[in-house]
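ok so dumb question maybe but i'm new to this and my supervisor (M.) told me to 'just get the structure for TonB-dependent receptor domain-containing protein' and walked off. so i did the thing. is this what she meant?? sequence i used:
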Amino acid sequence: MKKRTRFLLGQLCLFLSLATAGWAQTNTPKPATDPPKGNGIISGVLTDSLTGKPLEYATVALLQKGSTQAFSGTLTDEQGRFTFSGVAPGNYEVVFSFVGYKTKTIRQITLSERTPEAKVGTIRLGISAAATTLKEVNVQALRPTITQEADKMVVSIEGTALAAGRTAYEVLATSPGVFIDPDGNIQLNGRSGVTIMLDGKLTYLSGRDLRTLLEGMSAENIKNIEIITNPSAKYDAQGSSGILNINLKKNELQGMNGSVYAGSTYNGKQYGYSTGGSINHMRGPWNSFLTLDMARRVGGREATFTRVFVGEDETVYFDQDATGNFEVQGPPAVRLGTDYSLNDRHSIGLMAYYITNKLHGDFLTDTYMGNAPSQPNLYIDANNYNTNRFTSFNSNLHYLGKFDTLGTTLSADLDFVKITNRGYANFYNFYDSLTVEQPILQDFLYTSTPNGYDIYSAKVDYTRALARGRKLELGAKASRVESDNDSRFYFNNSEVLELDPRRTNHFIYDENIYAGYVNWNSKLGERFTVQAGLRAEQTDSRGESITTGQVTRRDYLNLFPSLFVKQKVTDKYEISYNYSRRIMRPNYGQLNPFFAYRDPFTYWQGNPYLRPQYTHSFGITQTFKKDYSLALSYLHHQDVIAEIPLIDAETSTTVYTIGNVDDSKNLSLTAIVPVKIFKKWDSNNTLLVAYNEYSTMVNNEQVINDQVYYMLQSNNNIMLPLDLRMEVNGTYQGPGVYALYRVEPRGWVNVGLMRKFMDEKLEVSLNANDVFKSQRLKIAAEVGEGNVNDFDQYFRQRNIGFTVRYKFKNGEKLEERRRNNLEELNRTGN
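this is what came out, is it supposed to look like this??
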């Protein structure tokens, strides 16, 4: 079994390398040709030049004389022998390669009708100089390598100090231009509307549950993070600010390996914990994994809300102090999958992820209201308690076929996602007059909010590699969403619950999306690479309020073009130009017109009439020495989806709803500057300067809300004595705007320490977040003449955490040289 597995891995190495075997000779590949078949044979033996021992499973490529593209290849057997059969008469070259050895080429091999067989004899490979000194060099990559491609930025995480002892969530949160709020909502370069993918597949999780998934995943499982600010036509058009695609490493070790971990956190008021582990197992054609993660995630906020309601007869001043707490806990989340190689060219895979947890939360407010500042005449004590059971099942069936060594592939995916929420809440309101003597009045309310989503998706992608570096991509996708939200609101002032029909709503939403795309990649001369694409998406949706009988239908077809041009000015300087059109459809909860209750004077309500938001994105990115980049981008959003406060001065009530702001503009300049401050101190720095402008109609008048916004993000990795690794992350955000709101500046600092023991099998890490308790969110909006709506909130980001992780291996192990051979051949595909 061991020899068979080695052979299969060697075959994989061979097929990955055939298309690029000629790169060792020149960087200007010529088109491959298919020579006529014949009866010729070329054979020989490959050995180590020092020991004379045969080299087994080394790569042998056959090229026509003068060509740089291999058209056939094989592997040496256990005796180092290789054979090419069925070769036509002609002149050939044979290239031998094996990691740790110098590549060698045998030229002037001639076959003819008279001499159809050529024996090249024994070929001896010498060990490379790099291999002889490799063990003497201790290389430690402190910061990730950042590569700028035509349509994306790739942040390589594998093998860096950034990944050691950290979670996937922490690494994502410190990626260039990325900001994640306490609820898991993600911004990219100061803009919301980011789509998150794992291994190129949509997660279909809410921000909070996506955070739970990433917090339980070791960063050492991550290969790289693709930051795609202008996605090509291959990707779903959903998402106004781009895509963050987290690519996980593939297990390449025979036998069993994995890790277990445990950690705890404390935010000054609450304790949380996380524990779990992962197991990878590869044997023969099977490659399987299992991860279990269980956590008790805690959080809360302290906030003050200030409002002024200007009415025709009087003005009401509203001052509220609030405290919120929550804890989320459940049985272990399970993520498992397996890949099966049918043969060297075809494989199938299955993945499933199941998570369920229960949330307990409260939101306690003290509100003072009066007709003059600091002179209240009414006090409201509102205590809200909510419980929610969340369950998500995500499954994927995948097929991949490789049809040649140039990169022609066919892949297909089937996805099924089922998400359910079973929630209920109690609201206890006590009213006390502060100016006249009267008994305290009480108003008790109850809500039941079960909802769920079933998501079905199927897609197929075909890539055809052509001569001269050209590539054609085609694909199609169909998806369906079925949503059922039965939100019921009750008066709870007697022994029997009394239904409130005004605030009760049963909402059903169905949506079908059909998409197709074409992408074309080509080189234009030596310095230009072009990628052009077009995606079409047909959306059919139907939303129905069973309670009111209101039905909203949508049926629209959109085209989403994309264009990327990469110019290689010099070996150290490149420029990329890009354009794409995107869409942001309302999420299903935003379309539900149900009233979400917070206190007697504050509600949130969905909007079934929401229209999609469209974005035109233009960008120019300059890359220096492959590490430094300067990106200029312009985004024009139409029908912006944003939260809008609606003020009713007569009842002193604020209803927060979702509406379509007319449009917004964003002009930004982003610089990424990695710096090696000292030999053992690396720093990654991101500077963003942007101009944001929102245009909104309020009371039939156009309101312009604009601001120059800036953000500085610095991630520092430092090697300390005693093999301690330290990371210091600092972020500062300047003043910003969003729809009608203005956001005040804020900044924060996170610090972490990590140490490895037991031959690097055991990792111990300690981290402190928001050290100076400065990540406070202050937002203000002025709606109409004199109406004020201010927020001042702190979400308990300051916390301290401790994590221990142990890695293990058991079973068969590939020899280091053979395992590295696969990795080296992967790097030839540049």
